[in-house]
Write a structure and sequence with these properties.
Blueprint lengths: L6 H4 L2 H8 L5 H8 L3 H9 L2 H9 L6 E5 L13 H25 L3 E2 L1 E7 L19 E5 L8 E5 L2 E2 L10 E7 L3 E11 L13 E11 L14 H5 E6 L3 E2 L7 E12 L2 E9 L1 E2 L6 E2 L1 E11 L4 E6 L4 E6 L18 H17 L23
Parallel strand pairs: 1-18
Antiparallel strand pairs: 2-16, 3-7, 4-5, 6-16, 7-13, 8-12, 8-16, 9-10, 9-11, 9-13, 14-15, 17-18
Helix pairs in contact: 5-6
Length: 375
């Protein structure tokens, strides 16, 4: 041990930085910080965890400053310049170290919490975007108006308006479970019209994904379909490459080239190109039965505050406790079951008001026959 050399104290600053910047695993940087007081001081004063997080997620370059629990902007400016700078570096070290930990260790789960809007809807509300939150393409309807309380099934999907031009795109926009999420994979299932002759599948040719945040808080105008709404109300900080979509009735998964840190909690699925024409009217449609996004929600441990119009944001460490994990390996979400019940109640209310489609017949899951029905 007497012959061991501390390379940080022996090498110049640039050489030491080159060596430590090669570490791309947060746990390795934690081990470096535990070697000695001098190594920990080097990691903190040079913001190595901050630089690591920025390499992992370039969107973090837009962080205005970081905050901790019970920390206000005024508290960041108290004290002499040297002590304030040391406290800022220490705070950034704690926040970014925990962020790096969360990016690799927080539980992977479904990240879509609700639908926001579709660029168009053929029959609202029967074919609303809300249907894409349901994993099944057929849902049970309890017709309480029948004497025997018969259970029927109806199709569950979103349908675009018909277009004579097959290149007209469509968009589906969703709210994520947290304002800051790491998204790794998005899955989309096109809808197969089992009630039409030939069982056509109304997929898109390709798709791409956008992530970002709202320019202003949501209001009631966002519950109805509205053309070109996204261009006016959202700021996109990430746009994925295009992914080819197969005309197959299955949940098709699209893994992003790199995990994406979504700041603002908004995901948009852009559907490009139409392949299926409806026989009844000769128009092209796109129909989707389910959309799913998988990733790591960083809330409630972290939050963000968007600073408009600069586009920068405050990264808030709201708690240094790792989110609890349920028995199935996902983060506990006490509101998930309630949201599902609310959606079911909305469907029942629409049916009672005569706004939904009451199915007057039953079919089995394996029955692919049926009279032709328009989308």
């Amino acid at each position: 041990m007497e012959t061991c050399l501390d390379f940080i104290s022996r090498l110049d600053y640039d050489a030491s930085m080159r060596i430590l910047m090669c570490l791309d695993d947060p746990s390795d940087l934690v081990h470096v910080s535990c070697v000695s007081h001098s190594w920990r001081h080097f990691v903190i004063t040079n913001g190595l965890f901050k630089q690591l997080c920025m390499r992992m997620f370039p969107s973090l370059h837009n962080v205005e400053h970081v905050a901790e629990p019970n920390c206000t902007k005024n508290s960041l400016e108290i004290g002499c310049s040297n002590s304030a700078e040391r406290e800022t570096l220490a705070r950034e070290h704690r926040v970014y170290a925990f962020l790096a930990h969360g990016c690799t260790s927080f539980a992977v789960r479904e990240c879509i919490s609700d639908s926001i809007i579709a660029s168009s809807t053929d029959n609202y509300p029967e074919e609303t975007i809300h249907n894409t939150l349901e994993p099944r393409d057929r849902v049970a309807i309890h017709n309480t108006l029948e004497p025997r309380d018969r259970v029927a099934r109806r199709a569950s999907y979103w349908s675009s308006k018909g277009q004579s031009n097959p290149v007209v795109p469509e968009t589906l926009t969703y709210k994520l479970v947290a304002d800051i999420c790491i998204i790794t994979e998005i899955s989309v299932r096109p809808f197969q019209a089992f009630f039409q002759y030939g069982n056509p599948i109304y997929s898109a040719k390709s798709m791409r994904f956008r992530m970002g945040h709202l320019k202003a808080p949501m209001d009631d105008s966002m519950v109805e379909p509205c053309d070109n709404f996204a261009d006016e109300n959202f700021i996109w900080t990430y746009i994925s490459p295009k992914f080819a979509m197969a005309q197959e009735n299955r949940l098709q998964s699209f893994k992003l080239p790199e995990p994406v840190l979504c700041i603002g909690g908004i995901l948009q699925v852009e559907l490009l190109g139409r392949v299926q024409k409806q026989e009844m009217d000769g128009l092209f449609y796109i129909c989707i039965s389910h959309v799913r996004a998988m990733g790591r929600p960083l809330s409630p441990a972290f939050g963000v505050e968007i600073l408009e119009p600069s586009g920068k944001f405050v990264l808030k460490a709201q708690s240094y406790e790792q989110p609890k994990v349920g028995e199935n390996g996902s983060c506990e979400s006490p509101d998930a079951n309630m949201e599902e019940r609310v959606r079911d109640l909305e469907q029942i209310v629409n049916l009672l008001r005569g706004q939904g489609v009451i199915v007057e017949y039953e079919w089995n899951e394996d029955d692919e026959s049926g009279d032709e029905m328009a989308l």
